[in-house]
Amino acid sequence: xxxxxxxxxxxxxxxxxxxxxxxxxxxxxxxxxxxxxxxxxxxxxxxxxxxxxxxxxxxxxxxxxxxxxxxxxxxxxxxxxxxxxxxxxxxxxxxxxxxxxxxxxxxxxxxxxxxxxxxxxxxxxxxxxxxxxxxxxxxxxxxxxxxxxxxxxxxxxxxxxxxxxxxxxxxxxxxxxxxxxxxxxxxxxxxxxxxxxxxxxxxxxxxxxxxxxxxxxxxxxxxxxxxxxxxxxxxxxxxxxxxxxxxxxxxxxxxxxxxxxxxxxxxxxxxxxxxxxxxxxxxxxxxxxxxxxxxxxxxxxxxxxxxxxxxxxxxxxxxxxxxxxxxxxxxxxxxxxxxxxxxxxxxxxxxxxxxxxxxxxxxxxxxxxxxxxxxxxxxxxxxxxxxxxxxxxxxxxxxxxxxxxxxxxxxxxxxxxxxxxxxxxxxxxxxxxxxxxxxxxxxxxxxxxxxxxxxxxxxxxxxxxxxxxxxxxxxxxxxxxxxxxxxxxxxxxxxxxxxxxxxxxxxxxxxxxxxxxxxxxxxxxxxxxxxxxxxxxxxxxxxxxxxxxxxxxxxxxxxxxxxxxxxxx
Length: 569
Fold this sequence. Notes:
Layout: E1 9-11, E2 30-32, E3 36-39, E4 42-47, E5 51-56, E6 79-82, E7 89-94, E8 99-101, E9 104-114, E10 120-127, E11 133-135, E12 172-174, E13 186-194, E14 199-211, E15 219-231, E16 234-242, E17 249-258, E18 265-272, E19 277-280, E20 299-308, H1 315-319, E21 325-327, H2 344-355, E22 366-374, E23 385-393, E24 401-406, E25 410-413, E26 420-430, E27 436-442, H3 470-481, E28 496-498, E29 503-508, E30 512-522, E31 526-529, E32 533-539, H4 549-552, E33 553-557, E34 562-567
Parallel strand pairs: 8-15, 25-34
Antiparallel strand pairs: 1-2, 3-6, 4-5, 7-9, 9-13, 9-23, 10-12, 10-14, 11-13, 14-15, 16-17, 17-20, 18-21, 18-22, 19-20, 22-23, 24-26, 26-30, 27-29, 27-32, 28-30, 31-34, 32-33
Domain TPPC8 second Ig-like: 103-222
InterPro entries: Ig_TPPC8_2nd (IPR058538), Ig_TPPC8_C (IPR057651), TRAPP_III_complex_Trs85 (IPR024420)
Domain TPPC8 C-terminal Ig-like: 407-534
């Protein structure tokens, strides 16, 4: 048949213009309306509304192949089996960018339309790159982005608890069981987009759905494909060093480089992931004047202080004066985004898996999230939010034991009446995952360069009580005025001695601390460095207490601890 049969099928009609010697490829359509066998016979064409021609389809049957020869090939299947109509879903992602900056965070919408008369159910979706796209919750459709991510706006229902952090959204997502898409309707679902890393990537979405009515085909699939180019934006790196004056405090340097040729970005906030760590400005400054924007091809460095809030001695953890977020934008104290809620936390743990698997990283490593905003040239453009995730940062020192000397820095005493006794204490922390035995050994020996003592003190390293005579003092003074390479008299008095035991031992459980009281007897005014002690530790790697000394044993010298001792009235 070459004409439409309104009861059984309809065929398409196409008008084309052909130039001299021109060849065109066209596509014709036929739509059956009843169940049966549809046979395609040929086509009819009309030239200038005057000449009518016919072209019948020639069907070449498959012949038996002889050895070394090919048989005739069937060029067209003219007999088509028409079955009952099936549900068909079509879909697209609304506002998915073809180009985005690294770190770009957006709320998108997936629209699915059922073009048939039958409902579909049991919809499942697989995403090729969950690092870039993850499904949201049904309530996310009504959110106003990015205001919905601020701390004072989000609801508690989107908080990701500590116990479910590893159960992050993966590549396979099942829509709620009760969702059905009726025939002729459109269904929408929120998607979160995060441009994780620069480069070109292909995004594939595959949807599986079942028919609500009984059919010969129980399920169908829908596939969507998008190409996205991610452009470089901010390159963020961190350098962490231990603070020598406070236990479990660190100085952090953040280096940010704008790698775009013409765009500027404003830093909004820096956050430490989790509740264990807190970030704050350096104590020497009440406020830091941050750069409002980072122009194209420019770099900036910022310094912060982080501390461990899990220790019992942390005062800031008790009064809540220190938090895991610090605002970088001027006057933006209320503009804080909550990194502990979806989708930021979901994308963060995707980055953790990419930058190092969760099961293989040691405890105590830090994760940072830098939130920034693109500076829009046109004020009418919506706010563009970017999140940069840096995971598994560590301090320079990875010793299992940390220690710190605590005590008065200035002492006033009347030495005409008695010698001075100073009470100090050594705080020791076990940061390993096993029980650790720590032994502290004090010594009255002094390194010459680390003590500020009278010029006649011994350079031989001997300390304690010794006989002092005028003859020895004269020899010492003469030796000082002579060649400095000659050893001075070994008979002298140390300016201070340790009054407590020469060694002490303590057993520490994982992630615990202990304080060892110490006492020093000082004989004269001056400035003294109480660092003449050593620590030796052994980590018990099993419950039986077995110690592998080649791997889990170590030690360290005391850190400098200077005390000014003044003569009182």
